[in-house]
Amino acid sequence: MKSGDQWKSKIGFIMAAAGSAIGLGAVWKLPYVTGTNGGGAFFFMFLVFTLILGTTLILAEFIIGRKTQKPPIPAYKSIAPHTPWYLVGVLGIVTSCLILSFYAVVGGWIFTYFIRSLTGRLTEPVSGSYETLFSSIISNPWEVGLAHVTFMLITILVVQGGIQKGIERVSSIMMPALFVIFIILVIRSLTLEGAAEGISFFLRPDFSAINRETILYALGQAFFSLSLGVSIMVTYSSYLDKRENLIRSATSIVGLSVLISLLSGLAIFPGVFAFNLEPNEGPSLIFTVLPAVFSEMALGSVFLSLFLLLLLFATLTSAFSLLEIVVSSIVYRFPNKRKIAAWGSGIVIYVLGIPSSLSFGLLADWLLFGKNFFDATDFLVSNILLPLGALLIAIFVPRKLSNPDMKEELLRGSSANEIFFKGWLFILRFIVPLAIIAAFLNVLGIW
After folding, report:
1. CA–CA gap between residue 73 and residue 151 (Å, rounded)
2. What is d(CA 176, CA 314) in angstroms, rounded to the nearest whole number?
3. Which residues of 253-277 are buried (b: 16+ CB within 10 A; e: fewer)?
4. Which sequence ranges form a coiled-coil region, renumbered to this chain (predicted)?
């Protein structure tokens, strides 16, 4: 491959891959699913699944991408020629397009909130008014439409720049900035009077509260937070040098994702409890509860702007990876056409997202299986396509790659031994598929 098609540095790859994993899943979704599923017990199970099953699946995707040095569809074809397994790559691309179609809508909401916070239009003193404000924003076709376009334009402009000059360069700035902003917010949150109750809720597990649903929701959140099952990590690892240590890279990415998840909870729950608000607000938590929390703090508008900037960074880094998986597949077939591929696929994905952006306004009464376009797309992706993709990858790798090939790719450049390889293979071959099938059946209401 050309050097321009590879990561310039290992840290650049880790920042970009961690940025892909650390998006709305860690900062937006984790706090509200933790809040609605009992707090500490849920977070504990989420950590277990992320560290064990998440790391296992990331390594599986790394092996496919680094071994073939190709984007998903040709990568699966290369390993299993003349078989339908390439459809796993097709599924990943379709899923990425659908995720980004509604992901960019949420990114637009965040962008709108950030601009409003800078102009002082998010300083309503009464907490209840934020629910009305949120509803008015997402139902306004002009405001959400402009924000949606802006978010997609930023994503396209970065991805068209390529791996080194686009995604790696921007992610290497955004990710460190994200950590710095998070640390500032956590320090402020922990100094609030009454913060201890929020910390206890988040970090002290009540194991009596763990049930089948808690376990299965935690499993689903682990996969969602790491963007597993979409072949994003296949794409990113295809740009890796053959000498890179896959195990160290995977553990670094998972570790950063866990750290951000921890910081996210510590930034949010102490404030929620300090001001006697409800942690189980649901998906609108960051848009309705958090502005109310920050409005009660000294310099609250400053901290709210910082939080929204952080959330915007996290959302954009994930959006880059979702568009890149599509663009890389086009560029593989048509070299030197990255700019056209980025704009063409970006515009198509934007058009796909228009019904989602209008789901709470002009198209609020247009329903699919009882859900608006936004909720139907979210359900399809999060509860069906992502687990299906992860399951197929877990089956594909041990079935279509020989043990010597997997072992060589996994252990190259690392100090891990055959015991590690056998443990990883056992988890991938047996534990991961069983866990995904259990979560899948539960979502479908079969078990």
Report:
1. 27
2. 11
3. bbebbbebbbbbbbbbbbbbbbbeb
4. none
Q: How many CA atoms lie within 13 A of 7 on its CB side?
A: 26
* Interhelix angle 418-426/403-411, nearest 10 degrees: 120
Q: Both tokens of residue 360?
A: 């709470």
Q: Answer yes or no: are the C-beta atoms of 20 and 236 closer than 8 Å.
A: yes
Residue type, 279: P
Cβ atoms of residues 332 and 74 within 8 Å: yes
Runs of H (alpha helix) within 84-204: 87-118, 129-138, 141-160, 162, 169-190, 195-203
Q: What is the pLDDT of residues 21-63, one digit of tens each?
A: 666 677 777 887 888 787 888 899 899 999 999 999 999 999 9
The domain that holds 408 is classified in CATH as 1.20.1740.10
| Distance of alpha carbon 212 from alpha carbon 217, whole angstroms | 9
Could you read off the pLDDT of 343-397 as tens digits, one per residue? 999 999 999 999 999 999 888 889 888 899 998 998 888 778 888 899 999 999 9
Q: How many CB atoms lie under 10 A from the CB of residue 343? A: 16
3-state secondary structure 21-73: HCCHHHHHHHHHHHHHCCCHHHHHHHHHHHHHHHHHHHHHHHHHHHHHCCCHH
Residues 6+ apart with CB under 8 A from 37: 213, 214, 217, 218
User: pTM of this prediction?
Assistant: 0.87
> Residue 368 forms beta bridges with which residues?
371
Write out the residue range of the structural domain in which residue 141 sits. Answer: 3-443
Query: What total number of domains does the chain contain?
Result: 1
Q: Is the dihedral of CA 216, 219, 224, 229 positive or negative?
A: negative
The whole-angstrom separation of Cα 15 and Cα 252 is: 9
Which of 224, 177, 227, 329 is closest to 17 using CA atoms?
227
Compute and round to an integer the Cα radius of gyration of the chain.
Answer: 21
Could you give the 3-state DSSP secondary structure of residue 371?
A: strand
Within 10 Å of residue 328's Cβ, how many Cβ atoms? 25
**Distance of alpha carbon 15 from alpha carbon 174, whole angstroms:** 9
Q: What is the DSSP letter of 164?
A: I
Burial of 73 (C-beta count, 10 Å sphere; 0-12/13-18/19+) = buried
Alpha carbons 10 and 292: distance in angstroms, whole number? 40
CB 374 within 8 A of CB 395: no
